[in-house]
Design goal:
This protein is α+β, with helices and mostly antiparallel strands and 254 residues long. The protein contains seven helices and ten strands. A four-stranded antiparallel β-sheet has the order 1-3-6-4, with helices on one face. Strand 7 and strand 8 form a beta hairpin. The relative contact order is 0.16.
């Protein structure tokens, strides 16, 4: 496994949409494959499959082309979209740390032959490759995100503030930031917004993927702070769900 500092990438990664379409060398792609093999799942009991394909294997649908894409397939069972978000965000940060651009792709779809190459359900794509534009943000001010007070009612003192800031900066579909966090120094509960009818049509597919992304940022920040942690289902967190939200999972901190 290629060892890189993923945590620091949270504060400078950005979605890249302008790529050098020259295919990457086989040695570079082998490093990507190796990283994929070592991704940590949120749920061990969900079968997930990752395939690397070229621009010719994807219908871009008005989006700019990239030289390569990761196609994610998954077993359709409870928690599978959150699990995909949790896993693929590890690749997003890995690409940023490796000097490569990447971008979650909600609109493009793999071509028929790719879809038929797996017995699992297609979930989402991630574009990646060398970029023709600036790779990293230079300041947190470049992030267009809600303030912590809008996504959590937790007192953001000390380490809790650092944990929640990592989740706040997580990417999401149309930058919707569908999450809310409650808890304390020992546990953080994560909730997904229930969108209105109009937004549900646009975002329903992606909300739970986005929650997986934010949960990975939370866990990565906890690991950076050398805290023993575990993502669990917590009955108390479930019973404390705010209005217009649904409970997803909790980060237990020891």
């Amino acid at each position: 496994m290629v060892m890189v500092d993923l945590y620091t990438q949270i504060f400078k990664r950005k979605s890249i949409r302008d790529y050098d379409l020259t295919p990457m060398e086989s040695v570079a792609l082998e490093k990507v494959v190796e990283q994929i093999k070592n991704l940590k799942p949120l749920y061990d009991d969900i079968n997930v499959e990752f395939k690397i394909v070229s621009q010719n294997d994807v219908n871009q649908r008005m989006m700019k082309k990239a030289p390569h894409y990761i196609v994610v397939f998954s077993e359709n069972k409870e928690g599978y979209k959150t699990n995909v978000g949790f896993m693929l965000q590890q690749m997003d940060l890995f690409f940023s740390a490796s000097g490569l651009g990447s971008c979650w792709q909600g609109i493009p779809k793999p071509k028929k032959q790719v879809l038929e190459s797996s017995d699992l359900e297609f979930v989402i794509l991630m574009a990646f490759g060398r970029t023709n534009t600036q790779l990293h943000r230079t300041s947190n001010l470049e992030f267009k995100r809600k303030p912590l007070s809008k996504i959590s009612d937790i007192k953001t003192e000390g380490d809790l503030g650092e944990l929640l800031e990592a989740a706040r900066l997580a990417p999401s579909a149309t930058n919707s930031q569908p999450w809310f966090f409650k808890g304390d120094n020992h546990i953080i509960h994560a909730y997904a917004v229930k969108p209105n009818i109009l937004r549900a049509i646009m975002l329903k597919k992606y909300i739970l993927i986005d929650m997986g992304i934010a949960l990975y940022h939370l866990k990565l920040a906890a690991e950076h702070l050398e805290k023993t942690n575990q993502i669990i289902f917590d009955e108390t967190g479930s019973k404390s769900t705010p209005p217009r939200y649904e409970y997803v999972a909790s980060l237990k901190i020891d």
